[in-house]
Design brief:
Length: 362
C-alpha cells in the first residue's frame, strides 16, 4: 500500500482519500454511455460488469486466452448434432444464424462450414456488446471462408436488447416473429455467456422474444465443478496456505484502465452461497475516489475501504438447473447433452407455444 500512496501523493481529497483517474485509453475504448454504466454499476452493485472486459485490448486478451484452451465438448456435441439440425430444418432453403456473444467466432465455425457446404446458409449475424470482439470474429471468418460467408456485426446488449428487428419476419404474433416458410433461424448462445450475466433471465427473455416458432436456440454453459449441493465447498481447505491469488491480464483489464493499481486491492476467488454463484472479486485496501470524465462534467465514484468489487460471476449450474432456466423463459428442450462437472454442456431448445392462459406451455 506504501507504494500506492506515494504514487498518489499529490492526488488526494482534503480528507486524504486517494483519487484515481482512468488511463487515456479508457476514454478511447468506452463511450459516454459506457462510462456512465460503469459508474452506475460500481455505485449500485459494486461490480465492474464482465461485458466491459471484452472491449478494446480486452477482446485480444480474451482471444489469446481461449486460443490456448483444449477443444470444447459442447462444440463436439454441436458437430454431432448437425444431421439432427438438417432434419429439424428440412424444407427450409435458408437458415440464418444469429450468434449472440460470438467471441472470436470459432464456436460457430462448425455450423457455418456445414451450412455453407450444403448451400443453405442465409445470413450470419454476430451480436455483441463489444465492437472489438466483433472485429476479431469478422477477421477470423474472412480467413476461414473468404467472401463466401456473409458477416454482419451488430453491437447489442442481450441483457437489454432483443434481436428480432434484425432477422427477417413476415409478421409478428404472440408466439414471436412469423417467418417466411422457406427460412428459419438458429440462434447460438455459447461458451457460458449467459452464466456471466447479472440476470440470465433477462437475456433469455430477449432471446426467446426474438425467436419464431420454427427457430432453435443452442445454449452451452459450463457445469459447476461440484455437482451436488452437499459436495459444494464452503471455503478454503484447512492446513493449506496458498499464495495470494493474482488476476490474469483479462480479469485485470478494467481495473488497469480505471487506473486502480494492484497495490490497492486483494484478490478473492470464492462462492457466494446466497446467490449460488462463483465469483472473482477484489477488495479495496483503502478508500478510493474514482474521478471519471463525462460530457456533463466530472463524476466521482467514492468507494470505501474494504469494498468488494465483483469482476466475474458464474451461476453454478447442474444440467437440471439449466433446463429449468430455459423452461422458465419459455423454451423447451429438443436435445439435452451430457457433460462432466466443470465442462460445457450443450442444449438445443425451441420456443414453447403459449398455453390458453397466455403463459408458455411446458
Ligand atoms: C464467454 S465469451 C463466449 C464466446 C463464444 N460464444 C464462445 O462460445 O466461446 C462471451 C461473449 O459474449 C459477449 N458478451 C458479453 N456480455 C454480453 C452482453 N450482455 N450482450 C452481448 N454480448 C455479450 C462478449 O463480448 C463475448 O464475445
Amino acid at each position: 500500500m506504501e507504494g500506492f500512496h506515494a504514487s498518489l501523493r499529490n492526488r488526494v481529497t482534503t480528507l486524504g482519500t486517494p483519487v484515481v483517474s482512468p488511463l487515456p485509453e479508457f476514454y478511447e475504448v468506452f463511450d459516454e454511455q459506457n462510462v456512465l454504466n460503469i459508474a452506475d454499476s460500481l455505485e449500485r452493485h459494486h461490480e465492474l460488469p464482465r461485458a466491459f472486459s471484452y472491449f478494446g485490448s480486452g477482446a485480444r486478451h480474451w482471444d489469446d486466452s481461449v486460443t490456448l484452451q483444449p477443444p470444447r465438448p459442447d462444440i463436439a456435441a454441436l458437430r454431432d448434432r448437425l444431421p439432427f439440425l438438417d432434419e429439424y430444418f428440412a424444407g427450409r432453403s435458408r437458415l440464418d444464424v444469429v450468434d449472440v456473444g460470438p467471441g472470436n467466432g470459432d464456436p460457430a465455425r462448425v455450423v457455418l462450414s456445414h451450412l455453407l457446404a450444403r448451400g443453405v446458409l442465409g445470413r450470419y449475424l454476430a451480436i455483441d456488446v463489444s465492437p472489438g470482439m466483433l472485429k476479431i470474429a469478422e477477421n477470423r471468418l474472412r480467413t476461414w471462408f473468404g467472401s463466401s460467408a456473409p458477416f454482419e456485426g451488430h453491437v447489442l446488449d442481450i441483457g437489454r436488447d432483443r434481436f428480432d428487428h434484425l432477422v427477417p419476419a413476415l409478421s409478428g404474433s404472440p408466439e414471436g416473429p412469423v417467418r417466411d416458410p422457406a427460412r428459419a433461424c438458429l440462434a447460438l448462445l455459447l461458451g457460458g455467456t449467459l452464466g456471466n450475466l447479472r440476470s440470465p433471465e433477462d437475456a433469455l427473455g430477449n432471446v426467446r422474444g426474438s425467436l419464431g416458432r420454427s427457430d432453435l436456440l443452442a445454449v452451452s454453459e459450463r457445469l459447476d465443478e461440484c455437482p451436488g449441493p452437499s459436495a459444494r465447498p464452503g471455503g478454503a481447505r484447512r492446513g493449506t496456505a496458498p499464495p495470494p491469488p493474482r488476476l490474469s491480464p483479462f480479469n485485470r483489464f478494467l481495473l488497469d484502465l480505471l487506473g486502480i493499481p494492484e497495490s490497492l486491492y486483494a484478490v478473492e476467488f470464492g462462492i457466494d452461497p446466497r446467490r449460488d454463484t462463483r465469483f472473482i472479486r477484489v477488495r479495496l485496501g483503502a478508500p478510493v475516489r474514482l474521478r471519471l470524465r463525462t460530457g456533463a462534467g466530472e463524476r466521482h465514484v467514492d468507494l470505501s475501504e474494504g469494498t468488494p468489487l465483483e469482476l466475474w460471476r458464474y451461476w453454478r449450474l447442474t444440467p437440471a438447473e439449466l433446463a429449468a432456466r430455459l423452461a422458465r423463459s419459455g423454451l423447451e428442450p429438443v436435445f439435452a447433452g451430457d457433460a462432466a462437472p466443470g465442462e460445457f454442456i450443450l442444449s438445443l431448445s425451441r420456443p414453447c407455444l403459449p398455453s390458453p392462459s397466455g403463459t408458455p406451455a411446458g
